[in-house]
Amino acid sequence: MQVRDGGPGLTEDDVRVAFDSGALHARYRDTRPVGSGLGLALAHRLAGRLGGTLRVEGHGPEGGACFTAALPRTPGPA
Questions:
Q1: Which among 1, 21, 43, 64 counts the fewest CB atoms within 10 Å?
Q2: Does the pTM of the predicted model rise above 0.85?
């Protein structure tokens, strides 16, 4: 699954810390609207616990940031 936003995107420095709790919040709270700084860290941790991954690209094809989640398939009912 892929999610893209229409925001300003992320710098290479932002990408390196995007999943650290509060890192982007602290970096941008005085310059632009930001969230609590917990969402990306929680999503990254949850994806990992489910055996998957969450990746980020600084800029999606149309601008903004692009996040890709990959989770393993589970067997269907017998």
A1: 1
A2: no
